[in-house]
């Protein structure tokens, strides 16, 4: 099929839009969309990857075509990620496309999963399916940056969320922080929570604020796992964080069998990962979270844990809400974020790259990535 450039771009854009719609639902699978176009350039099927264990985007698009009575023989499938080639929770999507008589596949990018990693493309080629790879690659990868991170780096993508005043204060000197930003910004923050595989906080935040840290202000089909850094297992068994229906994983450093038993009775999972200083080994924790299929880790913690994560080079991206107000004296975003201590040269600063700047109600939302962290 000879598709013109406009049709190709339109189909890929629609497939990417379908993938974006699944942002809350697919973890730990990637967010994928698929659009099937017949030989006359008419869209005959659309689909997106379903919640884990459900059909992938290609199968959903084939089913959509079948439901509406459209034959797929000789059609082209536009898909935002390489069709899978292995039996996991579902069957291989490349086989489903071949069986449906798809003539050509236009895929945005190869799947970084070692179980796929080009094998889906190889299967399609071997079956005589024409391939085009690349349209929409950057957008597809960005949409699935956590999945790519887990597959390639073996750690989740770490996104640090901060609500601050224009002069960079996250709380008054006594720790009061409710509310620096607007209700609109808080709802948007809940949406970002909902996209993550897990939300991370520290025991200090648990003890000081007794937060739920669930998704409430936007509609959610699932609650992300809550992860707590709690070196000495001080998390209270009656904490509000146990109220939502979700997994709670606690990482500790010092064994405390009595506290562990109490917390496990509340449904928590406790793992010990001490570092030589008697605190939780944060890098080891990230590696462990990857083995537990966490793609995106959304951090909402105090300035001390923020500082530790930044000091160890573990933060990939900042999600920063800035309110149009000055607080003056107060707590900053991160305490001691540099491994070398206070800087004496500006070129030692942590370099960031702005990815977006949007107004959310009266507040500014800035997404900034640590320079070079997405190049893997």
Topology (SSEs and partners):
Blueprint (H helix, E strand, L loop, with lengths): L4 H17 L11 E5 L5 E6 L8 H11 L8 E4 L13 H7 L4 E4 L11 H8 L3 E4 L3 H7 L1 H8 L4 E9 L3 E3 L11 H13 L2 E5 H7 L15 E5 L18 E5 L4 H9 L2 E5 L9 H10 L4 E4 L3 H9 L5 E7 L7 E2 L19 E9 L2 E8 L6
Parallel strand pairs: 3-4, 4-5, 6-12, 6-13, 8-9, 8-12, 9-10, 10-11
Antiparallel strand pairs: 1-2, 1-3, 7-14, 13-16, 15-16
Helix pairs in contact: 3-4
Which labels suit this protein?
single chain, alpha/beta, 23% strand
Walk me through this protein's architecture.
With 376 residues, this protein is α/β, with parallel strands linked by helices. The protein contains eleven helices and 16 strands. Strands 11-10-9-8-12-6-13-16-15 form a nine-stranded mixed β-sheet. A five-stranded mixed β-sheet has the order 2-1-3-4-5, sandwiched between helices. β4, α4 and β5 form a beta-alpha-beta unit. α3 (93-99) runs parallel beside α4. The chain is globular. The two termini are 34 Å apart.
In short:
This protein is an alpha/beta fold and 376 residues long. Helices cover 28% and strands 23% of the residues. The protein has helices at residues 5-21, 57-67, 93-99, 119-126, 137-143, 145-152, 183-195, 203-209, 257-265, 282-291, 303-311, and strands at 33-37, 43-48, 76-79, 104-107, 130-133, 157-165, 169-171, 198-202, 225-229, 248-252, 268-272, 296-299, 317-323, 331-332, 352-360, 363-370.
